[in-house]
Amino acid sequence: MNASNPNVPDLFGGKDMNDYLAELNERQAEAVLHADGPLLIIAGAGSGKTRVLTYRIAQLLATQKAWASQILALTFTNKAAREMRERIEKIIGHEANRLWMGTFHSLFTRILRMEAEHIGFQPDFSIYDSDDSDRVVKGILQELGMDPREIKPKQIRFRISGAKNQMISAEEYAAKWVQSSIDDITAQVFKIYNQRLRQSNAMDFDDLLIKPIELFEIHPEILEKYQDRFRYILIDEYQDTNRAQYIVTKMLAARHENICVVGDDAQSIYSFRGADISNILSFKDDYEKATQISLEQNYRSTQAILKCADAVIKQNKKQLDKTLWTQNPKGNPITLLDNFTEREEAQRVADYIRKLNITEGFRFNEIAILYRTNYQSRVFEEALRRKDLPYQLVGGVSFYQRKEVKDVIAYLRLLVNPTDEEALLRVINEPARGIGLKSLQTLVSQARLREIPLWEVLQDPANLSGVYKPAQAKIREFLEIILEIREQMSHKALTDTTRDLLDKTGYVKQFIEENTAESLGRRENVMELLNAISYFERSRENASLSAFLQEVSLVSDVDNMEENVPAVTLMTVHASKGLEFPVVFVVGLEEELFPMGGRNGEEADIEEERRLFYVAITRAQKELYFSFARSRYRFGEEKPGIRSRFLDDVDPAVVRNENGSTIKQKGDSESPRPSGTFIEYDYSKPLNTGYPGAVAGERGNTEGKTQRRTVYTRNGQGATSAPAANTGITYESAETEHLKPGVFVMHEKFGAGKILQREGQGSDIKLVVFFQNHGQKKLALKFAKLRILS
């Protein structure tokens, strides 16, 4: 290769590219060797997509189609980018450092820092995380005379973020999208929020994706520069792209159309973040000359696990056709755990984990417990602690979200970008130095009135006249510390600069003087941050404080996960995307939980919920367990559990009860019936979604038929009956004397509930009932028309 072009670096360490191609199956090799033009790779779970992407990049370099610096490879997590870079480095060596490879946010931040001045920002702009944005929104609400306790800043920020992801400007939102009082408030805050970020020379996460579009639209010559630079574009997890990501990559690919997207529509699970599955489903409409290649051979899971996953996802209608297969062993059947309560569920999962470790030799870090929502982790943490089993929680309070760590990072942000108002307000009186809230309000009011950054207000002594004199002195002292360190930082290492900052501000000293277990723990966290800065400095050439802050701001929960720590992993199914474990427990498989339900009266996107279940199943390599509870405490009350409809999607040939018997599914009248009474659930009724902004989805192919669902109760009494007209739920008539505390009942309006209290006699009997979806109600029995469930 070098003989034809002496300027081409020596790649592959003398190894021929054909040696790498020999490691691929036929479809993988076809994807790697694909010539120019749009390419859609449908990569099923565990089908080796990372290897395909890596080898495709190597092939482009080997055939001299492009220089490394002309290849843009986009991922969704730092972990995925790191894994891909490590693999490509093993093939092409240090040439990998010249690739534009990383997350959407990190690479477009890199472009924005180079071009920021074209859209009115400075290159050292700060990046606000959701907590920073919430604080800005909270301040704006207070300025508008609104109470943040009544109007939640998170709710407003979520709406602003949703609008940005759909490329809706503040002006357009105010003109076209205001339909309620909360929309009107959002419109007011949205406009000021954008102004506030610009004054602070700051961008939020959404801006990192939409500002490049703004840049390219305003300056087509800059777009042309990057279109020419990026001759080949590769995008991982394309099914997770939102509208902004779709638009910006389409703009960049417009010249050469050498765009290769890899994804799996069956794993599209991020609509609540704005991801649009139609991006991958419509790729061939966007690029008429596109080639589609499907990777269907699975290298991860056993045949039993794969058969289960395939049966589940085949229930969805909105998908690209594919059938996964594997040459792996058949494997053991999936085990279904039937539990009375969530505490029993956690206890028995812990028992199984101990057994798997002791008798079958699985290491703790080979085992994962996956659940639908974070709140479910508590009972599993308690159960594991009781049995002295090690675990790590992914998605809890991240290291970088701890107050003391965020404080120090705010100080560092201020060193890089003094106009960062959020950072300034956070640390100007941290530790307490006598600059009170009233003084700050006076100064902030001046900044608002004059429409200048707060930092500029502080620097002019004349502006401090309205502040108490002791506070004036403390403000000047604070400014002197920041200015002194800023002046010296260009001549010092990052670690030394941070040590100076901690010493001169007295930030660590406060913890030592307090001398409590909690304060000393906070000091240790600050010291750990110092270690992180030191490691960053040692591992990077020309490491800068700005680069460190950018990396920290873009860290995700999965990036913080320790892969080799000897501990069971607890995480949500969403967080598990892209990971794999020899043993997986999928827990909480109940209606209104998985699939999620019960918020804002909106219907759930059942197809997305089913895709989420599919993702959970396909994390497992060797052993898989499903689990549900017949009752679960929610909102302080025990509520009856309805076994998830998804357990009726699985292939019963590969799923067994603990005793080895075949699991019971809808329409399976000859199957052994579990103990306990049951009622039938009408699948054609809408299920409420568990997250805001979800789009109403498919609810299965009912074809005019009532679909049945078994709902277990605890006393083992009762009989089966056919579905009742209209309700889809059947139950026996209730005798008055049986209506007592602890009994589960059904109300025609409020649904299922549990009697908490009974009072009165005869026709004056009143019942206090806690309903699953409507909370606590007090009912007159003679009017209530209750039916007993158990």
Task: Explain what you see.
- Strands 9, 10, 11, 12, 13, 14, 15 and 16 form an eight-stranded mixed sheet that branches.
- The chain has 29 helices and 23 strands.
- 40% of the residues lie in helices and 15% in strands.
- α4 (78-92) links the parallel β2 (71-75) and β3 (100-103).
- The chain is globular, with a radius of gyration of 29 Å.
Q: In percent, how much strand structure appears in the residues?
A: 5-15%
- Percent of residues in helices comes to 40-55%
Shape: globular
Rg, alpha carbons: 29 Å
SSE topology sketch:
Layout: H1 17-21, H2 26-33, E1 39-43, H3 49-62, E2 71-75, H4 78-92, E3 100-103, H5 104-115, E4 126-128, H6 130-143, H7 153-165, H8 170-176, H9 181-199, E5 202-204, H10 207-218, H11 220-229, E6 232-235, H12 243-253, E7 259-263, H13 278-281, H14 283-286, E8 291-295, H15 303-313, E9 334-341, H16 342-358, E10 367-371, H17 377-386, E11 391-393, H18 403-416, H19 421-427, H20 437-450, H21 454-459, H22 469-488, H23 494-505, H24 507-514, H25 517-539, H26 545-553, E12 568-572, H27 573-576, E13 581-586, H28 606-617, E14 620-634, E15 637-640, E16 655-657, E17 678-680, E18 710-712, E19 744-747, E20 751-759, E21 766-771, E22 775-780, H29 781-784, E23 787-788
Keywords:
single chain; 790 residues; alpha/beta; Rossmann fold; Arc Repressor Mutant, subunit A; 8-stranded mixed sheet; 6-stranded parallel sheet; 29 helices; globular
Concise overview:
The protein is α/β, with parallel strands linked by helices and 790 residues long. The protein folds into 5 domains: 17-117 and 209-297, Rossmann fold (3-Layer(aba) Sandwich), CATH 3.40.50.300; 126-200, Arc Repressor Mutant, subunit A (Orthogonal Bundle); 334-398 and 559-657, P-loop containing nucleotide triphosphate hydrolases (Rossmann fold), CATH 3.40.50; 400-441 and 454-554, PCRA, domain 4; 743-788.
